[in-house]
Amino acid sequence: MQFFNILFLAFAAASVDAKCWKSGPKTQTSNISPYVGTVCNYLAGGYLGGEERYVCVVDNIGVKWNFSLERVSKGGTRQIDSAECQNGMNKEIKCEFGGSTEYGNWKYGADPNSGRCQG
User: Fold this and answer.
1) What global pTM score does this model have?
2) In this structure, are residues 69 and 109 in contact, taking their beta carbons and an 8 Å threshold?
3) In whole angstroms, what is the distance from residue 57 CA to residue 2 CA?
4) What's the rounded Cα separation, in Å, for the pair 107 and 78?
5) How far is Cα 104 from Cα 15, in angstroms, rounded to an integer?
6) Which residue, 45, 85, 83, is CA-closest to 67?
7) Radius of gyration of the chain from Cα atoms?
């Protein structure tokens, strides 16, 4: 029975859904999904432990999205490619108000807001 509990916990941890924000501008996945590939092409590469990078994009209806990607594991450099990044970010943009979730070595964030991207 103990083996079953451990196996169940391992499966539950591997199938984590996005932690969605509870307020902010309401969004639709279809307005931002065409930009996720571009966002992740920018964020892909080698990260030091604890390093975080950001990119801002305005979607099809003028909502500003602040995307963030953080390597939460420590030590050395770890690579993330665009496909892995897109997998994580696509979970976050499915939230009505965006979200932020840690999956393994990475923490993904997609935060829609009003306003314009700076810089």
Assistant:
1) 0.83
2) yes
3) 47
4) 13
5) 11
6) 85
7) 15
Q: What's the CA gap between 88 and 109, in Å, rounded?
A: 9
For residue 7, the model assigns a pLDDT of 33
Pairing verdict, β 64-71 and 106-113? antiparallel
pLDDT one-digit tens code per residue, 42-58: 999 999 999 999 999 99
Decide: helix, strand or coil at residue 104.
Answer: coil
Tell me the two tokens of residue 103.
Answer: 């999956």
**Which ranges in 27-94 belong to alpha helices (H)?**
29-32, 36-43, 82-93
- Residue 32 tokens, joined: 């931002």
Residue type present at position 97: F
Q: Which two tokens stand for residue 112?
A: 């829609």
| Measured distance CA(60)–CA(50) in Å, rounded | 32
Q: Do 53 and 43 contact (CB within 8 A), yes or no?
A: yes
* DSSP 8-state secondary structure symbol assigned to residue 59: -
* Token pair recorded at residue 76: 């050395």
55 vs 26, 43, 96, CA distance in Å? 20, 8, 20
